[in-house]
Structure prediction request, 472 residues.
Amino acid sequence: MIENSLIYSFLTRIGNSFMKCLNESAFVTAFLTKSDHLETVTGSLIFKAYYFLKVLFSKIFRAMRLDKLLSGSILKVTAFWAGLTIAAAPFVPTMLVLLMAAAGFGSMILRLLCDEKRELRYSAVNKYIYVYAGVYLFATFLSVDLKGSLFGGLLTVCFILFSIVVINAFESRIQVKALLFVMVCGGVIVSLYGFYQYLFQSKFGGVWVDTEMFDGMFRVYSTFANPNVLGEYFLIVIPISVACFFISKPILMKIFYAGTTAVMLACLVLTYSRGCYIGIAVAAAVYLVLYDKRFIFLGVLALLLMPFFLPETMLNRILSIGNMEDSSTSYRVYIWMGTIAMLKDYWFTGIGPGESAYNVVYPIYGYNGISAPHSHNTFLQVMCDSGIIGIIAFAALIYQYYKALFIAFISEKDEESRFLILAGLASASGFFVQSMFDYTFYNYRVMLLFWALIGLGVVFTKYSSMPEVCDD
Prediction:
């Protein structure tokens, strides 16, 4: 038996020693201390103002008998509208996504007004979402180009707050599973279209490649118009497909989700997005190591053997990371240098969101005459958009998200919940890795899916307490 082998015993002892040292550290102790102070929130002036308005309008609704009129209406099924928005995001224009997201907001508000006893679902992440949205809204109106920033800034705030809709929309396990199933099926459809592009390259524009270094390479982009954006989409969906594999009981469903994962991974390979390659590797590492710490050593072994198994085109693409002779790499480095130089003067308030505001100021600081629509780094761009306060609020939100999910994972006994929480951690981790190499919020549809992921991560922490089927 493998459990009785010397190698297994050795790996287990090293892993346990490492985790013991880590768990006893001061930082981890503070990180894993729960801080959901609901009483502090309910005692705040903002909450009291919200509660007063909710009660007032609920009474008006009942007085006008609107609650009776809307009884049983699909308009109150927030899970439907939120799920429709998430499912449609890879396929429809941004404005239609915005319209569907607005329907989700409206549905959530109708539910609150029709039922005076219903409250917004609370989590420690919520207040950081509100703070970041508020800071971003304020930064929008301080933009160096208000007209150019207004639409993008307001759209971003709307999509940030959509995470609150997701947190409040899903109230049963069957609703969550249905949403994840639809998301994974969407990922397969996106992949199939990507394969079609690869097979019939002459019908599609082949760009985003340094032809001197990678002659003949074609990068698929499917429904997202850019291979890096397609890769970012897969970073969100693939870990969810993996979680669905683990939580599915019927063998046919396990085979189905194994297949969907393989299909999406194959399409991710065809994006030739180096940052996304690293991102999916980090996502896999987070998932596997948290699932079983012994995977640390298997991961090291996989890295050592990787050069012998990867296709040559893929390996060359990975090895080109950091090569300044690659125009894509040098392009990013020069943009980062120019952006950092710009932030030395605009670090406090930023310059406002959007390509228009960025191009008002950036050309003054740019290197080698390089023009760019954004900084090609999400964290730099958040600071460009909203200044030091914005990046602090964003970092605090990320910190609280990881804290909430880690605490839930450690304390959770339900196996399905643990696998879903792992998916929330892995997806976010892979996405943030790619965010260091690109501005992952540049595509608004991917931005919405990211904020939906943040909401879903909170939902996963409450999954074990959900009923199988919603009573309402």
Residues 129-465 form one domain.
